[in-house]
């Protein structure tokens, strides 16, 4: 499990990182609001711990970016701003949970365990549609104008990411991290092979959707441009 801590208190980050890693989590730390964009767009996380008061970009702006990117990663706001209006603002802007400093570490762990037990997106168990394509992630099946076909497990994992982030560019690094794991050694060309397989599947079922290559960045699932 991988956690991103976005917090400007360097000493507090070091302590929290140490304690989380003792609990078995892999942990990245970001101390600046603007730097958070790099971590969010280039890595995949299971939980994000987000402070509100940060240099250059505050927690609410980061939270809005996270949801705008289409990321469904659970976000726990961990902040000294504990007034009722602060809590409402954080939750209304997309936070999944809200903890006020100071807090007990075991309380934080309980909140993390709670969030990890819940599916990050309830849509995952349902039939999804985009353009002329219907997708059943739990059955590895896509259906288009010309019929249906079954996907391999890796094709299914890849298409699920595209479906939940359609019309958005997803970096190669993010795709590799989400599907094969951040520490898994894999040849870069393997991703290109699965993109090719998926494009062929879309063509086979007669879908007009396309997976566009964003040169030097990644890929985007999009409707055919008229």
From TrEMBL:
It comes from Ruminococcus flavefaciens. GO terms for molecular function: phosphorelay response regulator activity; transcription cis-regulatory region binding. Residues 2-116 form the Response regulatory domain. Residues 125-223 form the OmpR/PhoB-type domain. The modification 4-aspartylphosphate is found at residue 51. Residues 125-223 bind DNA. One of its GO terms (cellular component) is protein-DNA complex. This is Stage 0 sporulation protein A homolog. InterPro entries: CheY-like_superfamily (IPR011006), OmpR/PhoB-type_DNA-bd (IPR001867), Sig_transdc_resp-reg_C-effctor (IPR016032), Sig_transdc_resp-reg_receiver (IPR001789), WalR-like (IPR039420), WH-like_DNA-bd_sf (IPR036388). May play the central regulatory role in sporulation. It may be an element of the effector pathway responsible for the activation of sporulation genes in response to nutritional stress. Spo0A may act in concert with spo0H (a sigma factor) to control the expression of some genes that are critical to the sporulation process. Pfam families: Response_reg, Trans_reg_C.
